[in-house]
Amino acid sequence: MNEMIQLMKDHRSVRHFEDKRLTKEQIKEIVTAAQSASTSSFVQAYSIIGVSDQQKKEKLAELAGNQGFVADSGHFFVFCADLHRHEVIAELEGIDLTESIESTEKFMVALIDAALAAENASLAAESMGLGICYVGGLRNQLQEVSEVLKTPDHVIPLFGLAVGYPEKRNAQKPRLPMNHIYHENEYEQDKDIYIQELQAYNEVVSAYYKERTAGKRDDTWTSQIAGMFERKKRMYMKQFVQEKGLDKR
Predict the structure, then answer these.
(1) Which residues on adjacent β-strands are paired with residue 6?
(2) Can you tell me whether residue 168 is helix, strand or coil?
(3) In principle, which of 114, 197, 214, 234 could form an S-S bond with 180, CB 3.0–4.6 Å?
(4) Which of 9, 81, 20, 80 is CA-nearest to residue 50?
(5) Which among 170, 190, 171, 172 is positioned nearest to 180, based on CA atoms?
(6) Angle, alpha carbons 175-138-19 (nearest 5°)
(7) What are the E-state strand segments in the chain?
């Protein structure tokens, strides 16, 4: 155990922020930390758009499902899969890279690069005593989000990261037990064991909700996730991504 591991294990989403903006120095340190993350073959297929304009923050909060904390955050970062710069590289080098840029593989590289950078940014922010919350709700209306951020083809806003000074911290949600997540040498083959582990976790999650809501809520994790997956959501995504010139091959 060390301070870094403790910081990671203490993570929780923060959705209530003080009315206080991040400084330019804090933003620089967070972005520099993000850029220090691993990147596939040095491709660096992501971009970060920092949103400081209050009207834009409020519009993005609305588009993300009226999540007010987006507008209230000290700074809002939007992480994008970005292969536009690689299109520019093609022009610079006088070569046609269309097939590669439009491939599913390069799209996956961009997604992974952006996620790795975002986690570094989150850890940097939390190490400063700031709170963070990922915002996937931006994908509810990506065409409108793209218009607000003026992203070109081959750039997809993936998620936001609201960062600020915590006004309130919720209790930490219990994660799945390690033996359900971590498989040694091969994936768990015994479905009965898999089900037993999920049922045990359901009891933990139900107890968590009971305590947090004073008995008003006691749903299980599997019922919550099944209900979420049952509601078809963002089914336009493949068409949108392909219209932006990605994941086509």
Answers:
(1) none
(2) strand
(3) 197
(4) 80
(5) 190
(6) 80
(7) 16-17, 46-51, 75-82, 131-135, 155-164, 166-168
> Rounded CA gap, 69 and 86, in Å?
34
Q: Give the list of residues 6+ apart from residue 115 with CB closer than 8 angstroms, or none.
A: 79, 158
User: What is the rounded distance in angstroms from the CA atom of residue 217 to the CA atom of residue 204?
Assistant: 13
The predicted structure's pLDDT at residue 169? 85
What is the residue-averaged pLDDT of the chain?
96
8 Å CB contact between 103 and 141 = no
125-143, pLDDT tens digit by residue?
A: 999 999 999 999 999 999 9
Q: Which residue has the higher pLDDT, 1 or 72?
A: 72
Amino acid present at 144: E
Longest Cα separation, the chain: 65
Write down the pLDDT at residue 170: 82
Tens digits of per-residue pLDDT, 206-220?
A: 999 998 888 999 999
Token pair for residue 19? 């009315």
Task: Find the helix packing angle between 221-230 and 191-212, rounded to 10°.
Answer: 100
Contact 63, 145 (CB under 8 A): yes
Q: What percent of the chain has pLDDT over 90?
A: 94
User: Interior CA angle at 99 toward 97 and 102, to 5°?
Assistant: 100
Provide the b/e sequence for 174-194 (b: ≥16 CB within 10 Å).
Answer: eeeeeebeeeeeeeeeeeeee
Q: Is 95 left (phi over 0), alpha (psi -120 to 50) or beta?
A: beta
Residue whose token pair is 């091959």: 249
- Could you give the 3-state DSSP secondary structure of residue 3? helix
pTM confidence score: 0.94
Closest CA to 158 of 230, 226, 232, 247: 247
